[in-house]
Amino acid sequence: MSPGTVTAAIVGPGNIGTDLLAKLRRSSVIDVRYMVGVVESDGLARARERGIAASAEGVDWLLRQDPLPEIVFEATSAKVHTANAPRYAKAGVRAVDLTPAHLGPMVCPPVNLHAHLDAPNVSMITCGGQATIPVVHAVSRVTPVPYAEIVASVASRSAGPGTRANIDEFTHTTGRAVAEVGAADRGKAIIVLNPVEPPMIMRDTVFCMIGGDADRAAIAASIHEMVAEVQRYVPGYTLRAEPQFDEPRETWGGHARVATFLEVKGNGDHLPPYAGNLDVMTAAAARVGELMAQQKIEQQTIGAQA
Amino acid sequence: MTRPQLAHDVRIVDTTLRDGSHAMAHRFTETQVRDTVRALDAAGVEVIEVTHGDGLGGSSFNYGFSRTDEMQLIAAAREEARRAKIAVLLVPGIGTVEDLRRARDHGADMVRVATHCTEADVSPQHFAAARDLGMETAGFLMMAHRTPPEDLAKQARIMVDAGCQAPYCTDSAGALLLHEARARFEALVAEVGDEAWVGYHGHQNLSFGVANSVIAQEVGVRYIDGSLCALGAGSGNSPTEVLAAVFDRLGVDTGLDVMGLLHAAEDVVRPYLTRWPKMDRNAIVQGWAGVYSSFLLHAEAVAERYKVSAHEILERCGELGLVGGQEDMIIDVAIELAAER
């Protein structure tokens, strides 16, 4: 291991795992040493081409390696991660979970990661959650948000069979995370698949209920600041327009509303740029890994100095 | 799962209290629902759909908040109906299995699971739940003009294999011309054979709702949707009272009492209409440009807010290929049009 880096593994060599690998290889603090699958695949072959030890013998193989990874990124399925998680924990390997297993705390890097940097297992929520929770938080840190609602529109081609077989999982998890992580009293999430050709770039709308007398300039400034923060790891994360404020209405329980229109264009590493919904997940996971690794390296440096 | 026995030549499904929710901006009262269900039930309507216009869980910023909780409306409808089944709409991505269980607890007998016409593979989760709950099922393939007949048939197959008893050609934009509708009906009927019935849900944006219903019946479609006074999104649905009169003239047995439905339309629904859906410029643009009918009221409201014209917004929505559920994009389009000025 080169000094000042943290060893990592990716479990699940599909499109998500491969895109994540491309992102992590740009990191100066993470050294991806292993890529793991359960059958030989293009993803394993691509990893080997990049000089990474890749195996189709699953987590059994991974946990026999020396050195063991310090962080594992799991891009398999909820079922597989649920089976693997206790084994990682026993081996002292931290897990960044991109599946819908949600065993650890749900994290969104610019919102609450600082509180969970030491967690043995963190959940990356959902694509819609990663794209929208920063904005909910940007509003709720300025003014109380009794209700937040997000609408995620994604290209049909970017919605895989797992998402399609259990679309309720997206709706439930994202709605819950919008409230719990974004800090709104109640949350709701809607997802729409659009098959238009050429494929549409991921779009997200964030509606936050606010008081009629909330400080609109401060809310808008907070949203802009947050968008810039997310752009540090998702360069194609942009506002389509200035945040839109609507006056209080009787049908909104006398509340006003701020609406934020986002476009999430992927980096085009392995996944196509329109699949911003997938890119925002891999980019956020890479960001989590990066910040975890930085903290670990800082702690080691401090330890060495002491 | 097998298709249910039909009591008549066609089964007219009334959606005044679901699609009509769009035209009413989701502001139905319990009294309006009770009065309408009583009149429909008395006139022999077999299935009455009651839900937020965008289906279970549709009450939201994006689609409009319901004045009355839809569960309360479903329970009220169930209490009033003596013979009719109460149906609910569920759009995966908006509503969930949990919403469906609550609707079942409040008395819903049937669910119609709705997906965009190319995305049927998000529906098996909900059909499976409906089966477990012992509910009758139908499936909406929305915006059916957006995919060719043979592809629509493949999507219907996915639904039927998942437990759907009646896949629908759902002309959400009211865009299907007579020959286009016929080709889709024939493809669906051929695909499902005697495993399921085929349905048609029409909108009047190009005035073809009733005409397409007649063709539908001729080629073997057996579930046909209507709404009293056409109350529905865009320029509304095929009017239930007109369907009853036309099928009566054709000698097609619907089991409906024409005079009873005319009473329901004229004396029960018309007095509470806040707008009577009609073929005005905006609605015609929807049929012409292939835009989801439910966008109409949203486009009108946003047009006023951003000082742009609703028909331009709707035309742009058509160009962008927006699908049902993307109501938020109407605001985005209006901001864009305002900026282009």
Automatic annotation (TrEMBL), chain B:
Q: Which CDD domains match?
A: DRE_TIM_HOA
Tell me the residue numbers annotated for binding Mn(2+): D19, H201, H203
Pyruvate carboxyltransferase domain sequence ranges? 10-262
Provide the GO biological process annotations: L-leucine biosynthetic process
* EC assignment: 4.1.3.39
Q: Name one Pfam family in it.
A: DmpG_comm
Record keywords: Aromatic hydrocarbons catabolism, Lyase, Manganese, Metal-binding
Record carries keyword Manganese: yes
From the UniProt record, list the reaction(s) this protein catalyses: (S)-4-hydroxy-2-oxopentanoate = acetaldehyde + pyruvate; (S)-4-hydroxy-2-oxohexanoate = propanal + pyruvate
What family is this protein classified in? Belongs to the 4-hydroxy-2-oxovalerate aldolase family.
Please identify the protein, giving its name as recorded.
Answer: 4-hydroxy-2-oxovalerate aldolase
The species this protein belongs to is: Pseudonocardia halophobica
Lineage summary? Bacteria, Bacillati, Actinomycetota, Actinomycetes, Pseudonocardiales
